[in-house]
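Lab meeting minutes (informal)
Scribe: AK
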Amino acid sequence: MKTAFHTGRAVLLALAASLLVACGSDEAPQSAAAPGGQALPPVTTEVLTVKRQDIPLQKSYSSLLRSDDEVTLVARVTGVLETRQFEQGDWVEQGDLLYTIEPELYQARVNERAADLKSAQAELDRARRDAERYQQLLSRNSVSRQQVDQAEAEQSVAQARVAQAEAALASARIDLNYTQVKAPVAGMVGLSQINLGNLVNAGSELVTITPLDPLEVRFQLPQRDAFELRKQLAAGETDIREIRASLQLAGNNGTQSLTLQGQMDFLGSRVDESTSTVQASARFENPDAQVLPGQFVRVSIEGLKRFNVIAVPEIAVTQGLMGPQVFVIDEEGKARAQAVQLGEIAGEWQIILEGLEEGVQVVSGDPSGIKPGTPIQAAAADEAAEEANAE
């Protein structure tokens, strides 16, 4: 009896297991489609067909403002600082007189050197006449050849003394010009480093002049951005001065931020080993001196491009279990999650490095509410989205 009981129980268990397997195989597709065995409802959203295109970029970098033409004036001669022709903080133009350094002393030296030159020229005239006279006497055998040679040598020495006196006079005149310290550039003068009446030596710093218009902004491009820009310039697609730049300075105490417009004018040719960046610069007009050197700013660069890339609207990218993903539409018109490798963001577009090919349709609208297997119905905006993608 026990054996019959166990055998019947085993048969019942086997039948129950086979029924469960059969039921599971029938309901598996429904449970994959939606919880409770119900099909997922279709979702109407924007759809675009992936195409390769040229994408414009806008990049922003932090930077420290500087005035590239800033000059620190130094004294070129030694003497008493007699006059100062400006007020500290004034705006000066190129060529304006700023200081005078004991010009009377150097004028006297010029006069002395001029007198030395006249004396040397008179000595040369005498030596030239003597040499000519000795040549005439030699033709009549009235003097020896040695005397003629001596006269010609004295003429040569006199010529050298004239040249030496001319050089000394030129040097004295240069020193006299240095007694008038003039502005080599236009800009705003800082604090005078030496007061009037003090003795200054050659090399003493006097004042700094800071040009404020235009301003030179130097910043560091990441290595990849620099290489892409160099490739773009080498292809002849763009000239570096066509790369627009804007300078943004945050406002203080609730005031609005300030923006200046300019353009790039330099891209370095080497990578900084310590930062893996390449130096670049941009020039900005600053006519009202609203921005001063030494301020930290953000520089935005426009005109950069990435050529022949695949991109989708940034909103189309979601985060899945395997990382970034987009929803592609399969042959049945249903959404399927596709893992992708992201590149740069270009405005509203997200560049895709890997995971998508041309011709694939992707959900380009808001993906919220879409799950794998959701039927997708393209919205009427699909054509407009594709036209924007093509542009």
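Next up, CB showed the second protein from the same session:
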Amino acid sequence: MEEILKIEKMLKKMLYIIQIGFIMLLSCSSGTDDTTTEEPKDIIPKNLVLQVTISGTTINNPNGDGSGVITCNATATNAVTYGFKVGSEAEVKNTTGTFNYTCTNEGLNDYIITVFAYSSTGHTISDFKKVAVFVTEKGPQLVWSDEFDTIGAPDPTKWNYDLGNGCPDLCGWGNGEKQFYTNRPDNVKVENGVLKITAKKENYQGSEYTSARLLTKGKFDFTYGRVDVKAKLPSGSGTWPAIWMLGANIDSVGWPACGEIDIMEHWGHNPAIISSATHTPSCSGGCANTKVGETTISDYATAFHVYSLEWTANELNFIVDGNLKYSYKPTVKNNSTWPYNAPQFLILNIAMGGSWFSIDPNFTESVMEIDYIKVYQ
């Protein structure tokens, strides 16, 4: 009997162990493997809306105020990033959906604005709008200037000097002039917001007069544009102030093949008459088919006037205080009549005397004042 009881106990124990193992097996087979992750589902953006606002749009200005500024706003469901393209330009991305752009083509022009909406899974949708934007014509832009605001010597980054009397190569600078050019403060300085070039009667380096000639050669030259020079001229018989230009290729081709443009010339022995002229291989100054522009300015030495040149591929226009005084526009343009298709540099000076006029023996000194010189293109 005892043996039977022992066997019964053992069988119950084994049955219990089997039940426990079966339960554990079921538990393991129905569980989730923590190391396994589901593949993310594709997230597709939708409901993309693009709005483009042109700055300054009104009933009278449906294409904007001329600034060319536009603002693009995009929204889309499921979008985390937006990309914007104007025409064929590079795409610009951000997360805000707002994009500002300035159109630069002058006048009225069409622009294609394309927007892309990106989801977190990299899927994208796009849309575009065509807008007509007006940009105001800006006109010529200031490319070089000197307003002479720093006291002392002229700005050495802008100006060089011709020095001496031109000898031995070109004594009297080719015109029989009597001055010796220097860079001394006695002859050239910036003071009270103006450049002052002073011609003086004094014995210096064998000459009876001194003065200064400034030029932008090697510092600045240009082809085509507008030059404005606000100046007050010297007085006295024998003075010869000039605001003028020479071709930057003068050292290789010589004068007059380089071309000369005299924006303003004045001779003290002919007071109140302001002249402008051109010098080319075909004609130097006033010739049979080329006149010299002359105008009368009675207060040339007591008031500032603006002497201007408008230089295009077709003509030279000489202007005083905004009024056209003379134009040079030859019918036939070639190297002889029109050397004005290459860079030129600027010159400011006062000469004293010349081969065809004398100097007042009572002359002592006189000043040309330049308030500013500006070049626009």
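CB comment: The longest helix spans residues 2-29.
No objections, moving on.
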